[in-house]
Amino acid sequence: MPSPHPDTATVTSLVEDAITAPSMHNAQPWKFHHRSGTRTIELHGDRERTMPRTDPEGRALHLGCGAALFNLRVGAAKAGFEPVTRLLPSPGDPWHLADVELREAALPDDEMRSMYPALRRRHTSRFPFTDEEVPDAILDGLQAAALLEGARLLVPDAWHVDVLLGLVQDAEHYEADDPAAREETERWTSLPDEESRPDGIPASAFGPRQSGASAPVRDFGGRRPDPGRATARFERRPQIAILGTELDTPLDWLRAGQALQRVLLRATLDGVVTSMTSQPLEWPELRWTARDPVSAMGHVHMIMRLGYGPEGPATPRRPAREVLTIA
Description:
Elements: H1 8-18, E1 30-34, E2 40-45, H2 59-78, E3 81-87, E4 96-104, H3 110-114, H4 136-148, E5 152-154, H5 158-176, H6 179-187, E6 209-210, E7 231-232, E8 239-245, H7 250-269, E9 273-277, H8 284-287, E10 299-307, H9 320-323, E11 324-326
Parallel strand pairs: 1-11, 6-7
Antiparallel strand pairs: 1-2, 2-4, 3-4, 5-8, 8-10, 9-10
Helix pairs in contact: 1-2, 2-7, 4-7
């Protein structure tokens, strides 16, 4: 049974769990605050890690912070707490995204605790998958996971997959023609001969260049020279899911981020490898086309690729001492 008030070591450990979450370009746009002698951990967005060109409203920032929030909840459940969460608790401060009160749990939350081993196993894979399809039973479980967090996971029909793949290619062209968007992506990526850093996408996580354009995988290598990078053929018919919500507010973005992470962790436990792309969703003129017009999902927040293949490498994380303040 945990102590009535979490000590510094416990709070630090929970934040270390939280920051294993994915975020756009691995920018890690989060800060955590804790006041000693209280049960609450605050989650704030980091305004220094925004992307003004491709995420001007902060939707992707909220998704990443929502994913970190879900990880914090999983870690808290594993430690024996009941994490009681309030989203957007300070109306006058839009950067204060959530409070998590760590109450003593009357009963263990076995569902949340079961996901803990996946926190550090889950990695984005930008490598080719096999053509083996994910069984319907697993897809049903992933869709149920999204619903638990107030979002929807849709497995699109063949025509919709074609639309989404076309949007990914369109987004590649949009970015190639936009110097500000290219600069933003390059600022958060590192080539093999560049100094290692605790954030961003390292070259080891780029995956090979695609032969053709069959899978919705963002090419973080872009047009920059990298003689050692291989080229590979990806799966002929990628298995895609889209995650979204009915509305499109900061509250919905935080819920979607938590749903995204629950889906990713559940997929990891089920042996499913994943990658994500938000590239078409960063351009308003493309994003509206990504949704299924007959679905209750009004707004798409993430395009996911599911399948079987090599797990991606771990990407760097800033240490907890850089993102956590204890007063």
